[in-house]
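Narrative of activities, Objective 1.

The group set out to show that a structural description can be obtained from nothing but a protein's sequence at a throughput compatible with the screening campaign. Below is one input-output pair from the validation batch, recorded exactly as produced.
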Amino acid sequence: GETQESMIDLATELSDGTLETEDAAGALGALAEQGVDTEEELAALTETSDAIADATGESATTIAEDLGPAMAAVGDDIEDMDQVADGVVTTINETNLEFNDFARTVERSREELTDMGLSTDETAALMGEFAEETGLSGRELRREFSSELEDADGDLAEFAESTGTNIETQEDLRDALEDSEGATDEYSEVVDENTSLMDDLRVGFQD
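Output recorded for this entry:
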């Protein structure tokens, strides 16, 4: 593992216009607690957490703290965070699903999701579809989605029939996710551009 001093150095090194040193340090700490122990992996996953954070309006610390355990709940490795990022980002941006509700639900329904054989990003696509279909949000969304998963007993087609969602097979989920490729870069670049624009304005005012 990394020493406290080297973690502070790494946090300082990783911080930029959209990632405060404090947020970088929080993300690094959360990742280290989840067993990420090389500087290279810590840096890469903090940068991924920051990109997802920029793209969803969260902090890198929140993403690192909550997405890792959600991934672990359905058997995904935290090292593959960049693989699930686009699916999660698309769902958060294009539906009324909040990141916090998504992460909590995945942990709560780990058994049912594992029975269905769903990965983190597939779960995001399914939950987003359910949120759109039902118009639910917050606690009610978490409760109803978990309840429907239980009733479906590991059967995606059963879930679709009961809830009215269009996703009946894993293939439907893969199709939904294909459309989301590149979403993290796309959404986080908008934030980066706005940040550098604000910086330019700030410098302009100071001159």
